[in-house]
Amino acid sequence: MEQQTKNRKKAIVLLSGGLDSSTVLAIASESGYECYCLSFQYGQRQQVELEKAKATALQLGAADHLVLSIDLDKIGGSALTGKIAVPKNRSIEEMQSSIPQTYVPGRNTIFLVYAMAWAEVIGACHVFIGVNALDYSGYPDCRPEYLKAFEKMADLATRAGVEQEKALKILAPLLYMTKAEIIKKGLKLGVDYSTTHSCYDPGLAGIACGSCDACLLRLKGFAEAGAVDPLPYSNREL
Q1: Is 2-85+103-198 a domain of CATH 3.30.1490.20?
Q2: How high is the pLDDT of residue 2?
Q3: Where is 72: in which H helix or E strand?
Q4: Is the pLDDT of residue 214 over 90?
């Protein structure tokens, strides 16, 4: 068993504690990677997602789980880090009509830079991220061309890329999957979705609101997958 572990490829997995990133962790593990999970306290309006991330990393057997702090709330500009209201009860068309208020300026780039640094330190050539181009067409840092551009930058910015010719690969296995397809994949891989969190505006006890974009998309995905979302909601219409 020890020899098998030594032979496994290492990968950084960006783990938010949400449905998507938890599924990505399961996919990476199933694909034979030794997973090093990276989560962030970035000034988001709630802490429950980090608690869920820790539980999921433990459940799915991550080799390590690092939580870093970044004060993006001091920059603001997002409903997730500032005093901007979280959009509620929007249709899918409304969600995709423009870049939503829940977009956090620079977040994915900042996260990927930290992942790039840790990957170089531990000798990993792969970073997994749970971005999805179907949920929010307006998120600029969830597009495939963005991920390709970051890979090119990483090759120019790291010693591993310049001296060792070890190209960093950003893997986004959920990029073109619907939420229902993601959920079906996760259930097949044994993801316990009761240890995940998606809500942008939970109550004081961490209970999901049931009406923000993330909740509505999650509930819609479970319904289309023919499965029951195990999380409680303060307002649940699906």
Answers
A1: no
A2: 42
A3: none
A4: yes
